[in-house]
Amino acid sequence: MPAETVAALVVGGGPAGLMAAETLAARGHRVVLAEAKPTVGRKLLMAGKSGLNLTFDATPEAFAAAYSDAAAIAPAVAGFGPAAVRAWAEGLGVATFVGSSGRVFPEGMKASPLLRAWLRQLDAAGVAVRTRWRWTGWRGAAACFDTPDGAREVAAGATVLALGGASWRRLGSDGAWAVIVADAGVPLVPFRASNVGFCVAWSPAMRRHAGAPVKPVTLTAGGESVAAEFVVSAEGIEGGGVYALGRALRDGARLVLGLLAARSAEAAAARLG
Question: In which band, very low, low, confident or very high, does the pLDDT at 238 lie, cut at 50, 70 and 90?
């Protein structure tokens, strides 16, 4: 079968792929979006189960500082900051609000209404979404896919690979694409864990507190400090405060807890007792 020819091809149906398809379609291009899983936006929906944190209500400078080690995306961060994210969601008919932590959520605290509205908009813009299309590489200038109807090829004027990392195979982020790209001679930066918990060899006495939040505390690692909270899990620690210091912790920095956040030394001593 000859290759299908389109103006733009997006491989990957997560938020990045959907946004790429939206942007390309808005500029008048015919877009095909290919997703290996049966549905798109799977990790977005999973994130929404505990309240979909869309962005953070911060000044442009503070928002950019959160991405200070990713200079390559600095222009994108500057061009699509918190205000733009909220305006985009509200353009889909999904109102947002700022929580006490400064995080921004949809009013309904769910991802599914936003995703449904987004897909309706993409459909109206003419984006063709192809699910169960797994990208397997290139043949010449054409992208190759395994599909329920057999092998297919798409030749595109521009191709966006929005394939995620290797964080959650069941939701589509299996990192298998890295082998394809490397075989094509493209140099890759190795995967490194981010937004993850960390293992701690708890004693039996501590392990029985699994699921308990620790708050409010100040967490410090590698010269960085955040006033936040975290959760004791059966195997370690996780949560917003831990994620914020993830780079330093991943590189071996010691985590120090300040227990006097928002309380006196006497109150802290009483709680520890």
Answer: very high
